[in-house]
Amino acid sequence: MFKEIPRIDIDEIVDKAFRNAKKKALSSKKNINEIVKEKESIRVTVAGETLAESLFKVVDRYPSFDRLPPFTRELIDIIADIDKLRHNLGALSFAINTINSVKIEYIKNIRRASSPQDASFLRKQCYGRYISILKQVEKNIKFLNNAREKLKNLPSINPDLYTIVIAGFPNVGKSSLLKALTNSEPEINSYPFTTKGINVSSFEYNKRKIQIVDTPGLLDRELSYRNPIELQAISALKYLAKLIVFVFDPTESCGYSMEDQMNLYNEISDRFIGIPFIKVLNKADLKEWGFKENIKGIEISAQEGANIDALKNNIQEILFNYFEEEVDYFEKDRN
Question: Counting Cβ atoms within 10 Å, is residue 128 exposed (0-12), middle (13-18) or buried (19+)?
Fold first, then answer.
């Protein structure tokens, strides 16, 4: 989406605009010596249109923020601040309109010029006005260029898919579980609000693609330790998650006690009210290390693949109920 937005360099687009204008004027079939005023009008027109088009490509290729899926909109807001994007895009739109107004004004003035020398002077004056307009929005262009760099690598998480989010403290085996559930290596994406990659993979259920996301750096420690951007990113996950698989490590070899893990589970479940949770007790292959069984959940070994089928069956039951409700809803809507 954002990779298609061009980067703006004022010197580059000015050079392109004036060069195109000169070529267009020289290509006139009429005798240049006799139509200096016509030549200068052409140069003013082509230069103005080239500059306006360069700015318009940026404004036009930004999506309508209000029409984006809530998760994507939240991400863009975290990364680049939608209000600031709107403000700076508005400044470019104003610049486009101003360039077009100046273009029309100078075409009229050149046509009324009393001599070829006056026409050339007016064309140069118009060029100066164009550059002045661009200088006025230089800060806005710089902001949008920076925003583009941040947004162009927006991770390939599809907010329209049914999404399972894996949560739990670091080192409890979330990445191993992701691989075990999907039988594939996850795609690792970068987010600007976490130093760790977001792992994304998928599997098919009844010809539907089910997306699984592991979010290291987000749902892996107490919310009280979060900064505002991380909290907003966690809130964005509310729009994405249809099911949360919370992974416990009852051996506590991850470095966190079961009490701490349960506290994190309670915090996250309180934040994601209305979303179903599955409790997974991982590292069942390491029971000789000590395996605290004071929490009910599905015992598995993601590393060894033990009891993964039981977890998949549980997930499929939830998927079945979800999609059956979806079908019932649409059938009632038709009636």
Answer: exposed
